[in-house]
Amino acid sequence: MDYRQSRICEVLLSQYDPAVLDQFKMEMSYGIERFFLLTYCLACCWPGLGARTDLRVVRQWSELEFAFPSDEARLSAMQQDYYVPGNSVPIDVDVHHRRDGKWCSSQQKSRIFVTIPRFDVGRPVTLGTVDELGRIAGYPDYSWHDHQGHNCQGMTSVFRTAIDECNRLWVMDAGKIGDTQHCPPQLLAFDLDTDRLLYRHVVNASSYIGTSLFITPVVDVRGSGPGDCSDTFVYVADVSGFGMLVVDVAKDRSWRVTHRFMFPYPNHGTFTIDGESFDLMDGVLGMALSPYKQGRDRFLYFHALAATTENVVRTKVLRNDSFLADPNAEPKSINSFPDERPNQSAAEAMDRNGVLYFGIMEPPSIWCWNSATEFNQRNFYQLAVDRETLQFASGVKVINNLKGEQELWVLTSSFQRVMTGSLSSSRVNFRIHAEKINNLIANTPCANSPKGQNHGYQANMIIPSSGYQRGTLRYGAVSYL
C-alpha cells in the first residue's frame, strides 16, 4: 500500500473508535461496494485485524432479533410460544440487489434474506429480510408467518431459497414443525419487484413420504433468450426422505425421484466441530446446477450431508415425467465421482463458469473446485479457513450484483452447539460472509480451466450422454432370476 492510501486509511480510522468500526463492518449488508474503502482500510491498517480469510463478515449475531409489526404482535407471539428468544437458528442466506436501486435511496437498498426453519417452537418467522439494525422481518410480511402450522396458505417452515435470473424468489416450505407435518409441502415463487406471490405448487401426497423434509431448491430456467422464463423446473432435496422432488412449473406438476446416492452413509454420520460431536444421518442436501448453454443439457451436482462423495446426474433424467409412475431412477443414470472430499460438506453453489463452492467441517473452511478438472483433492483450493467464524457453512450462494459481477455469500453457524444444546448468547453464533468471486479466486487453480477442457469435464466421462431408457427395476434376490 502506498503513502497516499496509508494516509487515507489513517484519516478514516482516526474518526472512529473500535466499537463504531465494528458496527461499520456490519453495515455491508446492503451491498459489498458500499463500504469497500472502509473495509479495505480495516484490513490494511487496523492493528490486530489480520484476517485468515478474504471473506468479509457482513452480519453476525449471538442470537437473532426480530422486527415485529407491533408490540402487541411480539407479546402475542411470546405468549403462544411462537417466539422464544434464543431459539432461532438461521440456515440459509440469499441476496437481492435491486435492479433500479441506488445506494443513497432508503427504499431501494439491496436485501439480505435469511431462512429460519422451525425445528421446534419459538421461531416467529421462517423467512425474513435483515434490516439495518440486524433485526429480521417476516417476508413478504408478518401475516405469512403468524398462526404457525394453522395457516397452510402462509409459510410453515423454510430451510432454503433460490433467486433465479427472472427476478423470482423461490421458497420451499417443508410444511413441518419438528416432526409434525402440519401442512402439505409447497413451492412458492415471489416477484421480487413487487413481493407478490406469482406461483404456488402444493406437493401431491404421492410425491412425499412420512419422513420427507424438503430443504434445498435449485431452479433450472431455460428459454430462447433473456427474459424468457417459460421453461422452468425446480429440483428439491428431500434430506430425510432420501430423494428429490422435481417440479415442472409450466405444467404445474411434480414427481419424486429416488436413488441410492441420495441416502446418507452411516460411517459419515458423526460430525465433530470445534471439539463437539453430534450424530446426524441426513441424506441429500447440497445441490448445484451447471451453467446453461442454449440447446444443451445441464448437470445437477449433489451430495448427502452424511457423506464425503459428490454425485452428478444429467437433468434430462430428472425431467422425464415417467417418474410419475415409478420414482426409482435407473441405477446407472446417476453417478458418483471416484474421489471424495476429506470430510462432510453441507451447502454448495456453482458459478457461471462452472466453478463449485462448498464448505467442509474440518478444518472449518470454504473451498472451490473447477468442474473442468477431475473431482479430487488435488484440484480443490482452499479459499478461506477459520475455526471460529467458518463453522458449518449451511448456506452458500453465488449472487450477481448490479455490475454483472459474481459474489459469494456464505452463512455459517455454530450448529454443533445447536445439536448438543450448548448454544450460548455470550458468543457470536451466526455469521453472514461475502466477497466478490473474482477477488476470491484470482490467481488460484479454480480461475483457469485446463486447455481443451470445459466445465463438466469428468461428469461427461462418467455418465452416458445418450441412450438412457427407463425400465422396470427389480431389487433383491429376484433381480437375479
Automatic annotation (TrEMBL):
<protein>
    <recommendedName>
        <fullName>Bee-milk protein</fullName>
    </recommendedName>
</protein>
<keyword id="KW-0732">Signal</keyword>
<keyword id="KW-0325">Glycoprotein</keyword>
<dbReference type="Pfam" id="PF03022">
    <property type="entry name" value="MRJP"/>
</dbReference>
<dbReference type="InterPro" id="IPR011042">
    <property type="entry name" value="6-blade_b-propeller_TolB-like"/>
</dbReference>
<keyword id="KW-0964">Secreted</keyword>
<comment type="similarity">
    <text>Belongs to the major royal jelly protein family.</text>
</comment>
<dbReference type="InterPro" id="IPR017996">
    <property type="entry name" value="MRJP/yellow-related"/>
</dbReference>
